[in-house]
Amino acid sequence: MAQYGKASYWDDRYTKDPEPFDWYQRYDGIKDILGTYIKKEDQILMSGAGNSRLSEDMATDGYRSLFNIDISKVVVEQMVAKTGDRMGFEWKQMDATSLDFADENFDAVVDKALMDSLLCGEGSTANVNKMCAEVSRVLKPKGVYIVISYGIPDNRLSYLENKDFNWSVTVKTVRKFRAPRHAVPLHVVCCCGTGLTTTITTTTSRGLWSRRRWFDCLVLNRWVLCCAIGWILD
Fold it and tell me: Is residue 1 one of the residues assigned to a domain?
């Protein structure tokens, strides 16, 4: 059974397959949302960055300070070798549930599939709560936490609307990469911060999300489906 919450799983995966891979969305798919909440000069933490092209695409588009972390030593070493000493672009091995940063250090934290990954590991609820608490700690007072996820909004909001964080959450949806225009949006973007207004903005009605609920409750997200398949094969 795959252990998506463990560094050993990711070290093995990136050793076997070092090619860049983007979970869910490429930069073009979420560019407008990111630009709404993040300034080009902001200090940005890319949490669970993996070997996604997202950070590089953001840097190319003018974002000046991107600090990338991942639990896998292997992928961090690969990305350091790839990006070299690019100005404003740093990499460090780090556990997102225990960040080695001072309080109120970042204007924005971007999480693309990391929350989903933790939700498919041991101690999922506790680990996601720890991660969110760490995000809250390192964000500046008017900072924003952006989560790109496969889960339905209600499930992710159960973690993000924790009273301890005092976040307001704006929920947006985007179509799956290369999906037809009439497709039900499959990816959720939750924008969290103390200075936001709580809204849910979707390109479809809640009814369509309800039609998905039976499936999403069964597998939680595609990560859990992979775990289930791995368990069956074992």
Answer: no
